[in-house]
Amino acid sequence: MDSDAVRAMFDAQMRRGVREGPGVRVEHDPYGVVRQIGTDGGWSGVIWSGLDADTADAAIAAQVRYFTEAARTGAAPSEFEWKVYSHDAPADLGQRLLAAGFTPEPEETLLVAPVRELPSAVGLPDGVRLRPVTDEAGVELMAAVHDRAFGAGRLRLRTELLAQLAAAPDTLAAVVAMAGDVPVCAARMDLLPGTEFAGLWGGGTVPEWRGRGIYKALIAYRARIAAERGYRYLQVDASSQSSPILRRLGFVALSTTTPYVYVVPAPDARTPEARAPEGGGGGRA
């Protein structure tokens, strides 16, 4: 795999060319910034920015103004995220965001693998079965795993997935691993039309079931679906916990990404520390 070429393709298709979907509006501003707004309270933020040292500060200020006004009119959540990749310009973009009042979250690694080079055999521990998520009951099971694996974000995850299932079910492949009647692992995949990348999100296992190969099985399950649907690559923003597993399966690091989060101050805030109530909760993971 030509990493430079695939990274350029990823930027073009999944960032600069990101498309609207259920509950999602995409806007391009004059600074070359591409932002996504969750119209139902879902994830909102900057996905792409074609900036340089001369335009970065003005572009950052423009996004803060935009999301502040949108939050105060109810058109956007009171928190938004700027996804900064290590290959983005200018090189000090993260420092500029810090100076503007953003807070960094843990760094993740952008990993990509050719779909047809990944294992597709789904091996599960005895007593564990897979349940595809196609209805509200399945979404509730996914949300239960998400809470135990990641600790937060259940309400927004539930809202986003139900909206996606209702409006565009073909763009989502989600699954829960069940040990009897207990959900122990869950994961989903976005299948965006017109792109060559299927995105892996939300893969998590409850603590007592980790280390038994279930997470790996859910990667194989999704890789098989992506291959059947004609996607060339799987993409994931991997945490430090999942990255070693993915690398052993053949995923290659193309960049790192750090979410920088800005919380819109309440209108009556008297100090920089005063913050408005959270409008959503939890980014895509």
CATH topology of the largest domain, what is it called?
Answer: Aminopeptidase
Which of globular, elongated, flat, extended, rod-shaped describes the shape? globular
How many individual domains?
Answer: 2
CATH class of the largest domain: Alpha Beta
Provide the β-strand percentage band: 25-35%
How far apart lie the N and C ends? 25 Å
Average pLDDT number: 90
Tell me which CATH architecture of the largest domain applies here: 3-Layer(aba) Sandwich
The biggest beta sheet is recorded as: 12 strands, mixed
Q: State the helicity in percent bands.
A: 25-40%
CATH superfamily of the largest domain: Gcn5-related N-acetyltransferase (GNAT)
Would you identify the regions where 5 or more consecutive residues have pLDDT less than 50?
A: 270-285
Count of DSSP strands: 12
Overview of this protein structure:
By secondary structure, this protein is an alpha+beta fold. It folds into 2 domains: 3-109 and 257-263, Aminopeptidase (3-Layer(aba) Sandwich); 113-255, Gcn5-related N-acetyltransferase (GNAT) (Aminopeptidase, 3-Layer(aba) Sandwich). Helix content is 31%, strand content 29%. It is built from 7 helices and 12 strands. It has helices at 3-16, 56-72, 93-99, 136-150, 154-167, 214-228, 243-249, and strands at 24-28, 33-38, 45-49, 79-85, 103-104, 108-114, 128-132, 172-179, 182-191, 197-205, 233-238, 252-263. Strands 1, 2, 3, 4, 5, 6, 7, 8, 9, 10, 11 and 12 form a 12-stranded mixed β-sheet that branches. It is globular and about 55 Å long. The two termini are 25 Å apart. Residues 270-285 have low confidence and may be disordered.
